Amino acid sequence: MSEIEENQAPKKTSFFSRLTSAKQGRAPEAMSVDAWLDLCRTDPGAYANAADRITKAIGDATIVDTKHSEKQERIVFGQKKIARYDAFSELYDKEDEISDVVAYIKSGATGLLVLRGPVGSGKTEIATVLEKLAEKQPMYLLKCKVTGEISPFNDTPLCLLSDDSHADAASEEYGIPRRYLEEIKSKWVTKRLEQHDYDVDAAFEVVKIYPSRENQRGIAKLDPKSKQSPDIHALIGERDINKIGEEDKLDPTGERTLSAGDPDAYLPGAFSKSHGGVFHGAEFFRNNPDMLNMFLEAVTTGYFTGDAGVGMLPMNQLIVLTTNDPVWQEILRSADSDALRDRAHVVDIGYTLRMSEEKKIYEKLMKKHGLEDKPIAPKTLDLLAEFAVVTRLKDGKDGALAQYDRHVRAKVHNGETPDGEGVPKIDTLRQKASSNEGLEGFSIRDAERVLKACFNARANEGIEEADTILMIEAIRDFIKAADESTIASSDRPVYEEAINTIADRYKTEIQKTINTAIVDADDGNCQVQFEKYLHYAQAYLDEEIITEHGEEIKLPAIERHLSTMEKKAGITQPEEFRRSVVEAVNRELARIARENSGKKPEDQIPAIVHWKTYEPLKEVIEAQHEADIESRRHILKARSESDLRTEEEKRQYSRFYDNMHSQGYTDTMVNRMLMELT
């Protein structure tokens, strides 16, 4: 390329330059076997196994002492210390489960890691995170010098040192712990050693390579196959009929061809592809039981027998199998389940029972579906989260928790302290919980469907938004359409009770939201009422007569005015209430006076106490307005300010909608709320 052409060549963007640089940093690096041996003396990563590398990729935990956390977290975790790992940060309310998984891996991961849980509980996400972690640390594999091929069975150079005759000496000389020198040689390795009269340097070099999900190198995922006929070859591999009869590249004469049983004419299965990394068996126990039997000895011995005479093949990886509880129980009832029990480390991955964490999952789902920027009314996700958690709660061991309201229990599980009598402690709920609590109920997949249905409920009107009214509709539609496989007939009453209870409560909350916004729209009148009540309360306490507009207002009339407002708010001790209001306002006025002391008049704070300052009196004024709400309904129902009669009504109309908009409600949401209350 000429200098001119070179200058005119398009420049890579910085983004793609970074991508290229990252790829180059992960490019395979070849070295001699001797160089690898020298590396072993100083770098444990040169001989690390799958558990070591994944442990390193996981990194150290952040230890949180919940004794110093906010109240909700203190209650949930009992002020204990908990471990959180950045790699699993998008899995919510899974601290204990993740700690269990990490402990298993750190202890060597010898066996089967079984993640048991219902659909959408996060078990597949955990397995996927482990796959991604496996990609972060390199593995060292043998590479044939003649063909330039990396071992299809992921043979590591450790197999060259693992013969009993010299493993101890190799361990001492190169500092490799003896437990790592148990790797068998595949026939692929043996063939090359024999070809070169066991001259290791002539036969091999070592390549540092990163595991790859894309290339199925050091990572393999197997989805469920047929229950009737086992697809053993998917696990152990099979002969490659396309290569049988081809010229053997190791034969310098060119006369020898590949035959059945030759490792160079073999297609490796998932066991070999994942050797040294992660094998992920999704819903693995749905396969024919013979598939499982292939694991049971291999995880103990570190090798399995391949097909078509290829001989023993190495097998040392993190094996992660996911399943749901009914399938797992069915497997355990089989005659030979003891071998599985001995080799399986089971971690239950249930649904969260914490509404706040469930809500985080929905926020993640919204991003997944591009809904995060769509209008959503306050408490919409809270509603869905409460419904979900309530359906997951059980009556407890021997019905011990049936006495407690499920909605109250949901709040307790969330670290809240509900008002009222008969509220259980969180420890009581946990100690008396049914064994399947959190393993059944409204699933995350169901929630995902309902969430999308809610946003799409008015799509034919060109509206894509969500609020509590649409969410209740979507949940009711889901329950109505659900078949027995989605909601068991015995559970349907729980679902219906949950949404009916929530719907009744949210209708009351809608009423309160509308009323509050109306009251705020009448802010000026509220201030007048506040100041009048304060004036009257002071006169009552001082037993003084008030003069207004030239007329005297005596104590009985003062008492009537105060009582009328107080009764609407349910005040039961009026004299004490009046005294507390006056004292609170006087304290605030005194504070303002201190603030203004020594300041120029133009710099002073106005000596005015806003009607919302003292919460108890604020509630009295709001109650007064709620009683008069019907008189202002025509303002809310107006299509625009032009439909209103006075400037004050127009101001209230505009202020009301501004209040609702500031909370996150759209005009269409407000219209639905008003319709709900008619």
Q: What's the short version?
A:
By secondary structure, this protein is α/β, with parallel strands linked by helices. 48% of the residues lie in helices and 9% in strands. Among the domains are: 355-501, no CATH class; 518-676, no CATH class.
Structure description:
- The protein has 678 residues and is of the alpha/beta class.
- Among the domains are: 355-501, no CATH class; 518-676, no CATH class.
- It is 48% helix and 9% strand.
- The chain contains 29 helices and 16 strands.
- Strands 7-10-13-4-14 form a five-stranded parallel sheet. Strands 1-6-5 form a three-stranded antiparallel sheet.
- The longest helix is centred in the last third of the chain and has 30 residues, at 492-521.
- The radius of gyration is 36 Å and the shape is elongated.
- It starts with a helix and ends with a helix.
- The model has no long low-confidence stretch (mean pLDDT 90).
Q: What share of residues is helical?
A: 40-55%
Strand content: 5-15%
Mean pLDDT: 90
End-to-end separation in angstroms reads 78 Å
Number of strands: 16
Q: Describe the largest sheet.
A: 5 strands, parallel
Poorly predicted spans: none
Rg over CA atoms, rounded to whole Å, is 36 Å
Strand order of the largest sheet: 7-10-13-4-14
Structural class label? alpha/beta
Features of this protein?
678 residues, alpha/beta, 29 helices, 9% strand
Topology readout:
Blueprint: H1 3-8, H2 14-25, E1 29-31, H3 33-42, H4 50-58, E2 62-65, H5 71-77, E3 81-84, H6 95-106, E4 112-116, H7 123-134, E5 139-144, H8 167-174, H9 187-195, H10 200-203, E6 204-209, E7 219-222, H11 232-236, E8 238-239, E9 266-267, H12 270-273, E10 278-281, H13 289-301, E11 303-305, E12 312-314, E13 318-323, H14 325-332, H15 337-343, E14 344-348, H16 355-368, H17 380-392, H18 406-413, H19 426-431, H20 444-456, H21 468-481, H22 492-521, H23 523-542, E15 546-548, E16 551-553, H24 555-568, H25 574-596, H26 615-627, H27 633-637, H28 647-663, H29 667-676
Parallel strand pairs: 4-13, 4-14, 7-10, 10-13
Antiparallel strand pairs: 1-6, 2-3, 5-6, 8-9, 11-12, 15-16
Helix pairs in contact: 16-17, 16-20, 17-18, 17-21, 17-22, 20-21, 21-22, 22-28, 23-24, 23-25
